[in-house]
Specification:
heterotrimer, A alpha/beta (240), B mainly alpha (282), C mainly alpha (329), B: 282 residues, mainly alpha, ABC transporter involved in vitamin B12 uptake, BtuC, two-stranded antiparallel sheet, globular, C: 329 residues
Chain lengths: 240, 282, 329
């Protein structure tokens, strides 16, 4: 087996006395779609933030293609090929859709080339038609796609999606899932945090379950959904 | 011995600094014009002395009341309107207020420096080898009394609890039936009124002019930044720290460079601990 | 570089430029009006330099007087002590201004909003205190004079005020060109992203620290250069004037805000409104009561903030939009 694209080894993160992540270890292979699930407050968003350098972990290593990322600022992590989208969607609201996406391309390109690349990314996620709209005028499904296009414009190897489908209805969600599968088919590696179990079970071939900042299970959707620890974590103590 | 004397003086003036900065920035807006309300408090006390013959220490509650009312009006007419506005509007509204208050005072009172005469002005108590200046001590005690009264008010009264609740979580407070707008106005008015109170009690050992606020702007910011914004305990620690820094640097530097020490401390604290020295304990 | 200007706008700018160039012939070459125009252009240029930090990066500096004063003193001291031409002094000013901006950027870079404003305010005050205290270097509170020389281009001294006017106009155009170039460059797009959401920008590859420092250095260097212009124009200045919070720091920020923060035309609009208004207020009131002109100035600032904090430009656009119901709302 070749070395995984992303290797997370023993990551811990404390806020004050509170352990948000303790000794998290996980691997993601190139070309995988991995789901990251867990109850509220399990540490999913914190893990993503640590991965891209928004939080510096107290211990552990994060390697992308064998290169240690701990201590790098987020823009260096992006340059190394890993970006995330934001849970609450963090678009540049006073800019146009095109300008939002273009920023991602500036890392490796001139403004003109980034603009071209941004157009291609918008077309890729199916929203080329709204390029000149202002971000604050967009619907939720559009915003979610702009976030993805902006991340794509950085030309990442691995994309971390933090509840990108939160505000979508079932039809929109199915379209979004198709987009993610297509992107994966083009060679992108994806890690997806999602609350919708149906979505995550149908999308991912492997799932990592976090609870109280620890990995409590890893496996196929079938394995994970039968795991007693996972069932207990989701249903609470009474089920134990 | 000079150092101990300086620390003692520092505590005396620092207590006043703590009180004038007590409710400053509590609701998330930094009022650049705050020191102008200190100037107004000094003028209220000055005219109470000049026209009515009142001692500034006795006129201090009057300064409190007058400036409290003014603060409520200013909040209603201006501050309220920028609470949701971009930060540029918040900053430059109070900057504009600073300019208006300072120059309105110039127009009304003229640019001359004025001071009051009190019987205790030059007296001092001797304790061992240390001297305690009576006007310093009086200002300190008045400030402490005022600070304690406010603390009791904040803890015990419905208003105080509602105000603290609003500061912590405006949305929840609103759901509890607290009028957040009124609470914000109360907090703003209380903040400037306390500052004015402080201005009145220091009048016996300082002179007042329309531009006196300029001496206090960075000082007050340093107090709150040292202590952490919106924290009462922080304001006390910050106030005492600034008072002591000031009087200690007076031993080593000429008057102008004392301010320099303060500015450098200020920038350093902002850069290193923007949440204040007590940050996180709130 | 695409500026997205329509033909009509290009024509309008060309016309304005032509008018601006011939305008001085309408006034007495040694008169008062032309001096006000000079100051107006100088402050427009300064507001434009501030706009790079305040408008593009959304960092409300209240300390730009620090750079301005550094520029004024640098070229003047080089001229006094070494007889160096103010044009060379101008370069030295720019370099020192840039260095000072870099130095203050380091501790203030992580600060946002009010805190950044406070820290820069304190920095400006530090420079003012130093200017007043270090008398051996600056001459202290009594001020310093630029030694008179035979008027010549090399010595940056002219008998005809109109020459200053054209120089100030050139300075404004240069600073505006820099502003526009930055706004449409990678740095400009990055600044816009940082302004709207710094974390999101960082995550998609924007080096926020580096970008903000670049903006600060350019802004500080340009402001310092304009300090040299001021020194050569006024021949005399003191620390409280060139390092002043109200006289420089607040005023340049206010000009940009009143005109339209973040826009290329805003500083010019703001300066053409504020500076003559101040002068007029000074003329009318000063003889009677000190402070009245400043009172007008502060009141104006409050009104603009309360009515339309995005300045005259947006106010104008709103008016136009109301006139033309079919236009963009």
């Amino acid at each position: 087996m070749t070395t995984p694209l992303l290797e997370i080894e023993g990551i811990s993160k404390r806020f004050g006395g509170l352990a948000a992540l303790s000794d998290v270890t996980a691997h993601v292979a190139r070309g995988e779609i991995v789901g990251l699930i867990g109850p509220n407050g399990a540490g999913k968003t914190t893990l993503f933030s640590a991965l891209v350098g928004l939080h510096r972990p107290n211990a552990g290593t994060i390697r992308l293609n064998g290169k240690n990322l701990v201590g790098l600022k987020p823009h260096k992590v992006a340059a190394a090929g890993m970006v995330k989208t934001f849970q609450n969607i963090a678009l540049f609201l006073d800019s146009t859709v095109l300008d939002n996406v273009l920023i991602g391309g500036l890392m490796r390109h001139s403004v003109e080339d980034a603009r071209e690349l941004a157009r291609r990314c918008l077309d890729r996620v199916g929203i080329g038609a709204i390029a000149d709209k202002f971000a604050h005028n967009l619907s939720f499904p559009e915003r979610a796609r702009v976030e993805v296009a902006r991340a794509l414009c950085t030309e990442p190897q691995i994309l971390l999606l933090d509840e990108a489908m939160a505000a979508l209805n079932p039809v929109e969600m199915d379209e979004f899932l198709k987009l993610l599968r297509d992107l994966r088919g083009e060679g992108l590696t994806l890690v997806v945090v999602e609350h919708h179990m149906r979505a995550i079970m149908s999308l991912c071939e492997r799932i990592i379950v976090l609870n109280f900042g620890q990995v409590i299970a890893t496996g196929t959707p079938q394995q994970v959904s039968r795991d007693p620890d996972v069932v207990r974590a989701y249903l609470g103590r009474s089920a134990a | 011995m000079a150092v101990i004397q300086a620390i003692l003086d520092g505590i005396m003036i620092g207590g006043v600094y703590a009180v004038i900065s007590l409710v400053f920035g509590v609701m998330g807006i930094i009022n650049f014009a705050q020191a102008e309300f200190l100037m107004l408090g000094m003028f209220v006390a000055y005219y109470a002395w000049a026209w009515l013959g009142l001692d500034p220490l006795i006129a201090a509650p009057l300064a409190f009341v007058v400036v409290f009312a003014l603060g409520a009006v200013v909040h209603q007419l201006m501050i309220r309107r920028v609470l949701q506005a971009p930060v540029v509007a918040q900053i430059f509204l109070t900057v504009g207020l600073l300019i208006v208050l300072e120059n309105a005072a110039l127009v009304m009172f003229g640019s001359s420096f004025r001071s009051v005469t009190t019987p205790y002005q030059t007296s001092a108590l001797q304790v061992g080898e240390l001297f305690v200046s009576v006007p310093y001590l009086a200002a300190f005690l008045m400030s402490v009394a005022c600070g304690v009264a406010l603390w009791l008010f904040m803890r015990a009264s419905w208003f105080g609890r509602a105000m603290r609740a609003t500061a912590q979580d405006p949305m929840a407070a609103r759901l509890m039936g607290i009028n957040a707008d009124a609470m914000h106005r109360l907090a703003f008015a209380l903040g400037v009124a306390l500052t004015a109170f402080g201005g009145a009690v220091i009048l016996p050992y300082l002179t007042v002019s329309p531009t006196v606020g300029g001496q206090f702007v960075v000082l007050m910011f340093t107090v709150v930044v040292l202590g952490g914004l919106g924290s009462v305990a922080g304001a006390v620690v910050g106030g005492l720290a600034v008072g002591i820094i000031q009087s200690l640097s007076a031993l080593a530097f000429p008057i102008q460079l004392q301010n320099l020490v303060l500015f450098v401390v200020f920038i350093a604290v902002l850069a290193l601990r923007p949440e204040g020295l007590l940050g996180g304990s709130r | 570089m695409k500026l997205g200007l329509s033909k009509r706008q290009v024509a309008l700018i060309a016309l304005a430029l032509a008018v601006a160039i011939v305008l001085p012939f309408a006034f007495d070459a040694r008169g008062y009006t032309i001096r006000i125009l000079c100051l107006g252009l100088l402050f427009a240029a300064m507001a434009q330099a501030w706009n790079i930090v305040g408008g593009l990066a959304n960092q409300m500096s209240l300390g730009h007087a620090a750079f301005f004063g550094i520029g004024a003193y640098t070229s003047t001291l080089l001229l006094i002590h070494f007889g160096i031409s103010p044009w060379l002094g101008l370069i030295a000013s720019g370099v020192l201004g840039g260095v000072a901006a870099f130095a203050i950027s380091l501790p203030t870079m992580r600060l946002r909003g009010h805190y950044f404003a406070l820290a820069t305010l304190a920095f400006g005050e530090v420079m003012r205190v130093i200017g007043n205290s270090w008398s051996d270097l600056t001459g202290g509170p009594v001020g310093i004079s630029v030694p008179f020389a035979k008027p010549s281009f090399v010595m940056f001294q002219f008998a005809d005020t109109r020459t200053y006017y054209w120089l100030m106009l050139a300075a404004f155009i240069v600073v505006t060109a820099v502003f526009v170039a930055i706004k449409h460059s990678r740095t400009g797009y990055r600044l816009q992203a940082i302004k709207e959401n710094a974390d999101a920008a960082e995550v998609i590859g924007v080096d926020t620290t580096r970008t903000k420092i670049i903006a600060a250095i350019v802004s500080g260097a340009l402001t310092a250069c304009l300090g040299t212009f001021y020194a050569q124009f006024q021949y005399f200045f003191d620390p409280d004037t060139v390092f002043g919070v109200a006289s420089v720091s607040i005023r340049v920020a206010m000009i940009a805000i009143v005109g339209g923060i973040g826009t290329a035309a805003g500083p010019l609009l703001g300066a053409l409104f504020v500076i003559p208004l101040e002068e007029a207020a000074n003329q009318v009131f000063s003889a009677q009561v000190a402070g009245l002109a400043q009172l007008v100035f502060g009141t104006l600032l409050i009104i603009v903030i309360l009515v339309e904090p995005r300045g005259f430009i947006v106010l104008w656009q709103r008016l136009v939009a109301r006139r033309k119901p079919g236009g963009p709302s």
